[in-house]
Amino acid sequence: MSKLIEVKDLNIYYGDFLAVEDVTMTIEPKSVTALIGPSGCGKSTFLRSLNRMHEVIPGAYVTGDVTMDGENLYGRYVDPVSVRRRIGMVFQRPNPFPTMSIKENVLAGVKLNNRRLNKSDSEELVESSLRGANLWEEVKDRLDKPGSSLSGGQQQRLCIARTIAVKPEVVLMDEPCSALDPISTLAIEDLMTDLKDDYTIVIVTHNMQQAARVSDRTGFFNIAGTGKPGKLIEFDDTEKIFSNPSNKATEDYVSGRFG
Amino acid sequence: MSTTAQTPAQTSSKPVRRPGDRIFAGLSTASGILILTTLVGVAGFLLWQAWPAITADPSEVRGGQGLLYYIGPLVYGTLVAAVIALLIAFPLSIGIALFISHYAPRRLAQALGYIVDLLAAVPSVVFGLWGVSVIGPMMLGIQAWSVDNLAFLPFIGGPASPKSMLVTGTVLAIMILPIMTAVNREVFLQTPRLHEEASLALGATRWEMIQQAVIPFGRSGVISGAMLGLGRALGETMAVAIILSISARYTPIITSPANPGTIAADIALQFPEAPTGPPLATLVASGLVLFCVTLIVNMTARWIVSRRAEFSGAN
């Protein structure tokens, strides 16, 4: 079910402002791809353009191609809603629906697809999704409690369960651990390693150790200055990026020497 | 650090209290007590003034047949008018608020917001005059049609009148629409962007996102807004007094000129000629009943809101 994403000559605009310029990269199926770079360099914007979430902001658009297994995600007749059903997303801050119970949260996306689930099917899906997110053991006795009653790390795993419950082909994660403590972070990182057996994963992170630990390929984004567009500087195997990058800027960034 | 160094005397058991804190705590406590005293004062006044009517011989009360006989239809009329108003205004206010908060382009949304707020500033007597001279005649046609074609419904009956309960309820709906819309718009705008994006990222259309994230989040606010509107509709005086034609007691029919009155309008209409003693007390007693009805409505709403407080998103 995991898919190959190819990005070619992608420019991302917010109105007149060019936010990300000329990105070309290939995201392999069943792998973890990490995007690193300083704040404001456009990596989150790029990530959001992969499932057309950046279009939520009025005036945002892209030029160039994004294809998933050869199918153009920005084709003329492609509905962004259907793209988002196939490419799930986990956000920086855990955002379970506060008005829903843990169980309802997991099923939130499934219900949107207008699928009528009978009781046993939905219970099965809740369990398998929560197991998939390594959360089942912790919450199995309180599935009807509100999602907001969980700790931050549990909430984030609940969001992951909610995302994988709709069986997406790709999972995008936008700094999923930045609001979490180290133990919860470790839990999520372990989870990513498990998830890549089934899904293509793209993660944006500020934590370079994290990128080095979990990813197979790493892309380094940088920005020339305020108001300038962000660019993909280097994209290579993670090992190479962190040990022997070909670009000077990448080397400075991963070794902590900037500017 | 420097504070402790300067005031070594206060390292004893007493916690440090700043004068600003104390003043503000005093002020807010006083305000809280003030609102309670006002409420108790009003209730006490009503009870005291209404007492003669409650204890009087039924024949001395206005209408000459006892307090319940007089107030009963008024309570009924008040509730019918307010419920009609709420039924019309509730979906409409949610629709307008959602349009302003989530559908309209920003500039149009702002302009619309101002217009709704302006609507709230129109005095009720103006709404009354407008209702009697414009809305009433305008609705005559549709009411006549209903009487001809929908007479099997228990609340439709002739002859159609521009001064019917339905017209009154409609004008009340227009009057309570601004406040309800304003409240709804505010709560819808406060939906955290994170929740909206969570929903969209799961593949929700805009309408699904609104159902999943916006409306549940705003639920308690929407109910509060509806109660504010209902409170205003229950207590509305001038518009009802001007429009409604009153000549009946209990009737389910809302399209005819024979309607029960409402408490507030009845007080306004009867007060100029109200003498003293039990007849006056009767009017005050009806006011006391209105006070209780409004209080019950509000408390019910609070209870509904609090039932799912755990899921409100406030935690």
Keywords:
heterodimer; A: 259 residues; alpha/beta; Rossmann fold; ten-stranded mixed β-sheet; 10 helices; globular; B: 315 residues; mainly alpha; MetI-like fold; 11 helices; disordered N terminus
Tell me the Rg of chain A in angstroms.
18 Å
CATH class of chain A: Alpha Beta
Helix content of chain B: over 70%
What general form of chain B does the structure show? flat
- Give the quaternary arrangement of the chains: heterodimer
Indicate the structural class of chain A.
alpha/beta
Poorly predicted residue ranges of chain B: 1-6
Order of helices and strands of chain B: HHHHHHHHHHH
Structure notes:
The complex is a heterodimer of chains A (259) and B (315). Chain A has 259 residues and is an alpha/beta fold. Chain A has one domain (5-254): P-loop containing nucleotide triphosphate hydrolases (Rossmann fold, 3-Layer(aba) Sandwich). Chain A has helices at 43-50, 80-86, 102-112, 119-132, 136-139, 152-165, 182-195, 208-214, 238-243, 248-254; strands at residues 5-14, 17-27, 32-36, 60-68, 71-72, 87-90, 170-174, 200-204, 217-223, 230-237. In chain A, strand 9 (217-223) and strand 10 form a beta hairpin. Chain A is globular, with a radius of gyration of 18 Å. In chain A, 49% of the residues are buried. The mean pLDDT of chain A is 87. Chain B is flat. In chain B, 39% of the residues are buried. Chain B has 315 residues and is mainly alpha-helical. Chain B has helices spanning 2-6, 19-55, 67-103, 106-120, 124-149, 165-189, 193-201, 206-235, 238-243, 263-270, 277-307. The longest helix of chain B is centred in the first third of the chain and has 37 residues, at 19-55. At the A-B interface, helix 2, helix 3 and helix 6 of A face helix 7 and helix 8 of B.
